[in-house]
Amino acid sequence: MKVVLTAYVPSLGEPGKIVDVARGYARNYLIPQNKALEATPGNLARFEQERQRYESQMQKEKEAAQARAAKLEGVVLTIAQRVGEQNRLYGSVTAAMLAQALAEKGFDIDKKQLDLPEPIKQLGEYEVTVRLGPQVKTPIKVEVVPDR
Q: Domain spanning 73-146: which superfamily?
């Protein structure tokens, strides 16, 4: 089924792009979430009329994300955890813990925005990417230290 995107969808692309997706994905997710319209001539004409509004909205969101990225630049999170033998952690450092640490520093970041493929289970320094918008990512440094 061909649809025209009205919002950024990470796996598909930017607003205005016409993509071919599975019928169920379009009808059960994209269209009810207002992320896409069926690519009929009427909907394409309607989207073209609203394109300028979508583009200005996306530009504002991108600028806001870039401003947040500039504030996050150089942030170092220090997480103290209990350790056992061979500097292995009891438990692990998760994205939720990092989001909470960022909140304590005054940043409103959801754990889903943190690109942490697997929990941290060793002491050391790590770089975690924060996704703030469709094309805006910034790295933060995470230091896992022993809790004394």
A: Ribosomal protein L9, C-terminal domain (3.10.430.100)
